[in-house]
Amino acid sequence: MIRTILQLTTFGNEQSRWRLAGIVLGIAVGVGLLLTLLGAAQGLTDRDQRRSWLNVNFEYRLDEDGEAYTLTDDTVMVGRFTDYVAGDAIERIDVAATQTTNERTPWGDPLPAPGTYFASPALIELIESLPGEQLGDRFGTLIGPIPDSALGSPDSLYVLAGVDEATLGQFQSWWIQPALAGDASGSNVVYRIVMVIGGIAMFLPVLLLISTTTQLGGAQRAERLSTLRLIGATPESVTRVAAIEMALLALTGALLGTVGWWLLRPVGARFVVDEGRFFPYDLDVSIATIVAIAIGAMLTTGIAAGVRIARMGIGPLGVTRERSEHAPSPLSLLPLLAGLALFGGVTWAFKTSNVDVMLLSLAIIGGFGLTSLGIIWAGPWLTNCASRLAARFAGSAAGVVAASRIRRHPEATFRSVSGLVLAVFTVTVFAASASSVLEADDPRDGAQVFPLSTVYAYIHEGATEADLAGVEREIEAVPGVLGAVIAMEDRNDPGSWLVHRDDAPLLNVRIEDDRAWVRFDAYNYIWGEPDAERPGQPGAATLAGDLPFVLMVATDGSDGVIDTVRTRLEASNQMASLARTRADDIDVTTRKFVNSLANLAYIGIAITILIAGISLTVATAASMLERKRIFGLLRLMGMPNGVISRIVAFEAVAPLVAVLAITIGLGFLISWMMVEGLSYSRTLHAPDIRYYLAILGSLGLAVLSVLAVTGLVHRNTGVNQTRFE
Amino acid sequence: MTALLTRETAQSIPADGPILSARAVVKRFGQTEALRGVDLDIEPGEVLAVMGPSGSGKSTLLHCLAGVLAPDDGSVVFDGIEISRLNERQRSLLRLNRLGFVFQFGQLLPDLTAVDNISVPLLLSGVRRNEALKRADDWLERLGLGDAGQKLPAELSGGQAQRVAVARALVTNPTVLFADEPTGSLDSLAAEQVMNALLDQVKAAGTTVVIITHDPRTAAYADREVIVRDGRIPAGNGVRSA
Ligand SMILES: Nc1ncnc2c1ncn2[C@@H]1O[C@H](COP(=O)(O)OP(=O)(O)OP(=O)(O)O)[C@@H](O)[C@H]1O
Ligand SMILES: [Mg+2]
Known about the structure:
The complex is a heterodimer of chains A (725) and B (242).
Chain A: H1 2-9, H2 14-50, E1 76-85, E2 88-96, E3 116-119, H3 121-129, E4 141-145, E5 158-162, H4 165-169, E6 175-177, H5 189-214, H6 218-230, H7 235-269, H8 287-312, E7 314-315, E8 318-319, H9 334-352, H10 357-393, H11 397-408, H12 410-440, E9 454-458, H13 465-476, E10 481-489, E11 497-500, E12 517-521, E13 526-530, E14 547-555, H14 559-571, H15 582-586, H16 588-626, H17 628-636, H18 641-678, H19 689-716
Parallel strand pairs in A: 2-5, 3-4
Antiparallel strand pairs in A: 1-2, 1-6, 3-5, 7-8, 9-14, 10-11, 10-14, 11-12, 12-13
Chain B: H1 2-5, E1 20-29, E2 32-42, E3 47-51, H2 58-65, E4 73-78, E5 81-82, H3 88-98, E6 99-102, H4 114-124, H5 129-142, H6 158-170, E7 176-180, H7 188-205, E8 208-212, H8 216-219, E9 224-227
Parallel strand pairs in B: 3-8, 3-9, 6-7, 7-8
Antiparallel strand pairs in B: 1-2, 1-4, 4-5
Helix pairs in contact in B: 4-5, 4-6, 6-7
Bound molecules: adenosine-5'-triphosphate and magnesium ion.
């Protein structure tokens, strides 16, 4: 019986085959997406675990009694730094141990002896591609690669360098801990948030696509099912047929999606996430998960389909309940308002008290999800308002037909554009938030500002004048170096930099009066007032009692020169820190992070917009073809061809216009709350070009979709295509 | 010639001679020869009933007369215009301005109220919305549908829906009204109401009517009756002088 029904209803005609293809494709895309996201989430966790040894931690400095460890055979002395080369950051650990140490590297090798190092394969490649004086000489002799099991990504730049206890002891920051190990930091929590949000944003259009294709040709299907009821099928068997049909389609879709995901996995691993690409196996998902997803897809879609058919109430004489939509009420704005309130509340709470980061991210995810759903929820009401307005002013036949359609079916009309609306909302939130990072931290040079091209390092306390003179001489011999300057530490105000007026021109400083010394504001990178308490002593290079504090090297700003200076400074053993530039302090990693995030996000958004465009086309086509007969009759009565195009355009564009403007506004509002509320120093900026491209792309797809549907409707309503009785 | 396609010239009907004239019209659908040489003259203001068994070619004939289908052979002349010489756009204009159509069922736009449905042809031919709605209201009144104007097609009875369809067909004052089994899906009382309403209006306006029907009672309203059999109209039946 069920087989007969399936045969009659499911595979009956060409249109139903299109429907099948649409559903299977939608589910396949959804499953593929889910697997990708799960794989990436799992990959991020694994990555975090593998690189946990880098997170050596101050907490390890003290033993159970609260005493600092001493260096024995069972402890290591650790310095944790970020080194830089050509604008890239290197995660660097310097380790010192006793000669008879029992400690090993996290991957089991003996610790590197002083002057030797392990490096990640990507770093080894980089070292080999550059002259030794620019990079390799900083670390000594390479012992071998750090294995993949201790790397976040194949692109990771890590180095574990052996040093002796005395050299590391000269640094400002080091400690002794019982082993070279750390905790998985969860440092990529922002990625997780973005991925969950991105997942929601990409998933909703897929669900919408599935639900639209499911309802394709709904009227004819209902008719057939009711014919079956007429010839004796029970309501239960009809419901069961619908459920089984859908479950079978879901299974097919899940299989296809899994195969597609498997084949495309190498492509996925190429995307740069956080510190680099994934290892291909990072994106693996367990068989159990795949099976669970397939079963989940079958159950949810099957049950949903059964319930829908049951609720339609298909009797022997057709559909019992007239499927007219209720007029949407303004109450449907509530979820949207709740989402905004949640965002506002989070912002307020963050400003006024300490909020747990985990809680905060959950609230952000929740707020985003709620707002997205809220937009979908409120869409029909907004659409309806717009159509009423339009109906009042509509003067043409196309306007009247389209406005009436929207007014009677606000939900269906809005649903067809909702994917695009969501995509635009997401891209707005993202682009606006990202702009604050990309724009605000753009480092600038200027008068009285510490030059970007100057390399500096703190001087180790024990360095003698002779040592320093030697270092200065060596560095000034590097071609491209403009000069080296030593800033003194004010004995009355430890930690402050004082620079002599003779050195000022090298460093962008102007001293208007005749004072000899100028103070540097290291927090803001600006040269402050000339030091008022010190009498002008032109000629005297140092002050009695002040200590050499920072060595500054003015360069021509080229990467090679800066890196050579870094190498010389670091290899001199007279410094208490690694060499830095102001650009390093501004933190290239943040910018890289946001950039890589932006790339990912825009890829996701492009996919989402594409899915949404397909969804819009399918939905519009379905809604027009549903009225194929009536449009055919109107054409027979002499309706000109252009009217159909205008109806299609109006029905697709009106809801887009009604909701898109509001959506974009909401997107900016939310990112403003996140940026201004949740960070201390950032402000919102105009989004970058990709944002406008995304918006243009969305509108372009909408136009394409209208054109495609217009063509389709024209072909299907020709006077020769319609039987008029 | 384009002038003939617009409503403004509707009064220029020649005083005598047929308004619509078919000669040796042949129409094939693949192997099936739906019309096998039909001759038919229709006089201005005449109400013509077309009868005949199912599948005999009645609807096909109507479509050829109205310029919906192009005959494979023969000619159709409407008001002095050879229809086959018109292009698709001109034929659309002709249908919009000079011809009206009523079908058996399901011809109203489901989302539009009755009055909006009636106003659509007026809007299509460029009448302003307010004016169109006023005229549509007027037609509702004339067809005894005064209180149904704001209802959706789904909320109308079958007879009411057909009367709305009649109003929509007549609202542009067509020269010829084509009706393909307009009462085919109605019970006899509703059918009678629809036919009475239709005839009242066309008689008053002098509109020519071609009506296909299986129902002898409907045919009884007509001035003349032709019978289509196997794609032919028996000699002497369609053309007076033959
Ligand atoms: N579009 C078409 N394609 C193929 N054959 C057609 C088409 N339209 C009509 N026919 C065939 O032409 C013949 C005449 O059809 P037509 O619809 O004119 O009959 P009819 O007299 O109107 O019948 P009924 O009273 O049942 O409506 C039939 O054999 C029919 O199958
Ligand atoms: Mg017929």
